[in-house]
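Hi, here's the filled form for the chain we discussed.

Project: internal
Contact: R.S.
Residues: 189
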Amino acid sequence: MNNTTITALTNAGAYLEGHFLLSSGRHSNRYCQCARLFEDPKTAAEVIAPVAEQLKNVDFDIIVGPAMGGIIAAYELSRQTGKPNVFTERENGVMCLRRGFVIKPGAKVIIMEDVVTTGKSTLETADVIRAAGGTVVGVACIADRYTGDLGFPRYPAVKFNVESYDADDCPLCKEGKLELVKPGSRKIT
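And the returned structure, exactly as it came back:
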C-alpha cells in the first residue's frame, strides 16, 4: 500500500472507516470517497502524479473518465499528461458518450477511475470505447480495490485490499454498533 497516498486520502477525508453499503450491494468497513480529495487541487495533483508517472511510457491518445467519479480524476490526469479527456455517463441506465464527445476509431484509450471496486463502470466504459472503434490500453485509478482481472493493465495511485461482505453475512450488521451508510453515486439495482 502506498502510505503517502493513503495519508493524503485520509487527511482529505476521502478514506473512511465505518459501515458502508457499496454499489454492488455488499457491505464494507472502509470506503474511499475520492470526491473529497478534489476539494484541494494541490492534494489531488499530488495523489494523481504517481499515476501519470506510471503512464509516461504508455502509448495512448485520450483519457476517458466514467461519470461521476472518473470525471475530475480524468481531467487531472489529462492536465498532467497533456492528453485530451472526455467522459462517459449513464443515459437511461446505459453507459454512453454524450455532449458531442468522440473517440476516434483506432484511438488508444486510458480509462481513468476514482476507485475500481467491482469493475462495473470500467467494463461498461470499455464497451463504449470499443463500440466507437477505440482500444483500451489500460485502466488508471486513484484507488484500486479490485482483486480480479479486468483484462487490461492497471495503473493505480494505491492498491489496497478492503474486505467486503454479503449483506446476510456482514459482521458489522451482526454487531449492530455502526449505522449502514450508502456514500456512492450509483444506484443499487
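Let me know if anything looks off before we file it.
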